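Reminder to self: tokens first, then the designed residues, so the page reads top to bottom the way the pipeline ran.
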């Protein structure tokens, strides 16, 4: 049912530029293809899973979960008029929330995992074991469900200036709800995860200075972990921080300064652009897989180069096994040697995780 009471702001909603739906179509298509390939590689080509792969696989699922809502989002941005009813509005917002904050939470867990795996005594850390990581991922999905299910009870569509809106700044009858929810989620879903990721990057960058320069394997693993967390920070900065800033400005103006139409119009235009940028995370996360996992990178490049050829499975399996030894070494053997360590060797005699 369309809610029509008390929803006239006096501010004309800004039309969405044709550039937005065109860009979203390209972004969602590329993201869909990349994430399908990623999930296929994880499921069928990576033979031995460790805790790193489990986290990356869940991140890929959170990226792919936006797919059912993509056509609704594109049509809505193209027409600027929601024609699909209340339930599908709630369903769209639920998938958007699960997609965005699922990606944020799993990116943060990957950063934490990289830090503790490389710089701490991983042998005694439950955080680096597959059973604990599996339970942690399940807990994240439960949290996402709890976070998103209320949308099905409180979110409504509204008639504004002759068009139907779904989750719009101009739905003033829900301005208080949007404002409160925004500030809760901005702390739990952005500031806290971003701060944790930034701290992990800083600590790991400091740790790399202590690594024995003669130990090539150690330097490679630490450097890859730093690069992984750095890519996570870049994704935060490009995809998540701008959209949260413009959304916060929009809900604040709507609630406290409803007569400032010119300011709201500018913020609304900026929000559309930053919201479009937030969708690029589904295209950027596969880059992180290549930094975080040699197995994924080698399997992906081998698969691409041998798409129409046979006889490469043995090579891919061998490369995956070698990469698994390298990636599991830090998880199995605890803290890596530093400059004060006299033994520059790094045992690979045991593989896999407990």
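Designed residues (354 positions):
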């Amino acid at each position: 049912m369309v809610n029509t009471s008390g929803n006239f702001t006096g501010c004309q909603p800004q039309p969405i530029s044709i550039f937005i739906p065109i860009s979203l179509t390209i972004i969602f298509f590329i993201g869909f293809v990349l994430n399908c390939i990623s999930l296929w590689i994880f499921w069928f080509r990576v033979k031995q899973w460790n805790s790193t792969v489990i986290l990356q696989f869940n991140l890929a699922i959170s990226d792919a979960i936006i797919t059912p809502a993509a056509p609704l989002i594109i049509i809505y941005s193209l027409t600027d008029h929601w024609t699909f009813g209340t339930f599908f509005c709630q369903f769209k917002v639920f998938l958007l929330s699960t997609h965005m904050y699922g990606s944020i939470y799993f990116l943060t867990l990957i950063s934490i995992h990289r830090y503790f795996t490389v710089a701490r005594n991983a042998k005694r850390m439950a955080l680096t074991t597959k059973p604990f990581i599996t339970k942690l991922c399940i807990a994240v999905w439960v949290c996402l469900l709890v976070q998103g299910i209320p949308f099905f009870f409180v979110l409504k569509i509204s008639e504004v200036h002759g068009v139907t809106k779904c989750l719009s700044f101009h739905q003033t009858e829900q301005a208080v709800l949007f404002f409160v929810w925004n500030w809760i989620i901005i702390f739990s879903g952005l500031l806290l995860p971003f701060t944790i990721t930034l701290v992990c990057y800083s600590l790991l960058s400091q740790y790399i200075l202590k690594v024995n320069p003669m130990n090539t394997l150690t330097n490679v693993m630490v450097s890859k972990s730093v690069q992984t967390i750095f890519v996570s920070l870049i994704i935060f900065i490009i995809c998540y921080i701008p959209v949260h800033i413009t959304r916060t400005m929009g809900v604040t103006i709507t609630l406290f300064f409803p007569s400032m139409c010119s300011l709201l119009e500018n913020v609304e235009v900026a929000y559309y652009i930053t919201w479009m940028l937030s969708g690029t995370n589904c295209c950027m996360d596969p880059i992180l897989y290549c930094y975080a996992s040699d197995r994924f990178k080698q399997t992906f490049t081998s698969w691409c180069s041998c798409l129409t050829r046979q006889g490469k499975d043995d090579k891919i399996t061998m490369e995956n096994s070698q990469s698994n030894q390298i990636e599991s070494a830090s998880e199995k053997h605890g803290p890596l040697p530093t400059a004060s360590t006299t033994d520059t060797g790094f045992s690979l005699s045991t593989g896999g995780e407990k």
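Confidence is low (pLDDT under 50) at residues 1-9, 310-319, 333-354.
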